[in-house]
Structures are given as structure tokens and as C-alpha cells.
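Deliverable D2.4 — example input (C-alpha cells):
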């Protein structure tokens, strides 16, 4: 090599193109409207977030016991819709696992709810498998006939590059500015 300074831009190009392996573990208790989300990047735990919903607001607690409050405003919702629609075709899911424990004190209602949950999961997974055939899918539904509970745990791993995230973010910002710039 003539000049070693060419390695610096090469390093940044490789970082942008290198796919990130992201894993998310999400546990939701729909009865008490609470949840825990754990985010991993290359099997390194990045963040643990505790979430609960109260009065149309989402409250999040991080490791430092810092409370963050989100409200649903039109700009942020529209930005997230644009960002997700730009990003959804670029995500390559590797694995999706759903485990649920649903129950009421009545056995008949528990069986009906668990059957409907099974139909919902199979429909959703059929859609995902048609769009992304390389994704492995697993689900387990455990009925709880004696206890009142509604727990859903989702484990997913997917691959995306930093360039795709940045490109989707920039496109979402410009489309939001174009929309709100006209008003």
C-alpha cells in the first residue's frame, strides 16, 4: 500500500456497511400494563428499560432510575410511522420466539382466549414467513386455568446495517419537514 491514511476511510465504510446483530427481549404484562425490554447488540447487553402505561402516557425507567415521559403528539407519531415504513424492508429477521401465559379463573374462557391467541400468532407468523423466508419462528402458549394472568414474552433477533438506519432516519426527517413545511 502506498499510503496508510486510506485505511481510515476504509474503516468508516466497513463500519457503515457491516451488519449489526440486534436482539430484543420484550416481556409484557397486559393486565397491569407494565413491561420490560432488554436490548442486546452483538450479544452485549446495552440497555434494560422498564415501561408502564398510565393515562395515555408511556413512562420509562432506565437503570439510573430516571423517569422519561412520552406523550402521543402528532409530529412524533408521524415521524415514527415514516421511520418504521422506511426501515421495515431493510430489517432481516433471524429468529422470533413468542411465549405466552394467558389465563382466567374460568376454564372455558381460558381455552377460547388461548385458541384465539394461537390463531393470531399463526396468522402473523405466516405473514412474516411469506415476506422473510429465512426467519426461524417458534411459539409456545401456556394456559393458566387457575390464575388470572396475561403475560407475553417476545424474543427476536435481526440484522440491519448502520447505513440503512441512517438513511431511513434522514428520509423520515425530510418527509416530515416537507409535510409540516407546507402547513
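Example output (designed residues):
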Amino acid at each position: 500500500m502506498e499510503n496508510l491514511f486510506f485505511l481510515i476511510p476504509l474503516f468508516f465504510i466497513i463500519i457503515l456497511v457491516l451488519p449489526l446483530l440486534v436482539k430484543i427481549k420484550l416481556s409484557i404484562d397486559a393486565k397491569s400494563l407494565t413491561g420490560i425490554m432488554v436490548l442486546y447488540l452483538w450479544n452485549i447487553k446495552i440497555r434494560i428499560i422498564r415501561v408502564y402505561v398510565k393515562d395515555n402516557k408511556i413512562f420509562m425507567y432506565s437503570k439510573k432510575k430516571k423517569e422519561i415521559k412520552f406523550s402521543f403528539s402528532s409530529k412524533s407519531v408521524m415521524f415514527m410511522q415514516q421511520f418504521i415504513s422506511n426501515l421495515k424492508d431493510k430489517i432481516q429477521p433471524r429468529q422470533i420466539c413468542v411465549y405466552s401465559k394467558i389465563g382466567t379463573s374460568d376454564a372455558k374462557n381460558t381455552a377460547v382466549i388461548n385458541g384465539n391467541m394461537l390463531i393470531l400468532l399463526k396468522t402473523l407468523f405466516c405473514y412474516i414467513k411469506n415476506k422473510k423466508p429465512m426467519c426461524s419462528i417458534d411459539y409456545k402458549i401456556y394456559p393458566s386455568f387457575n390464575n388470572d394472568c396475561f403475560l407475553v414474552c417476545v424474543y427476536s433477533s435481526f440484522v440491519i446495517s448502520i447505513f440503512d438506519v441512517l438513511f431511513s432516519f434522514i428520509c423520515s426527517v425530510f418527509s416530515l419537514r416537507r409535510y409540516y413545511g407546507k402547513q
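DSSP finds four helices and eight strands in the chain.
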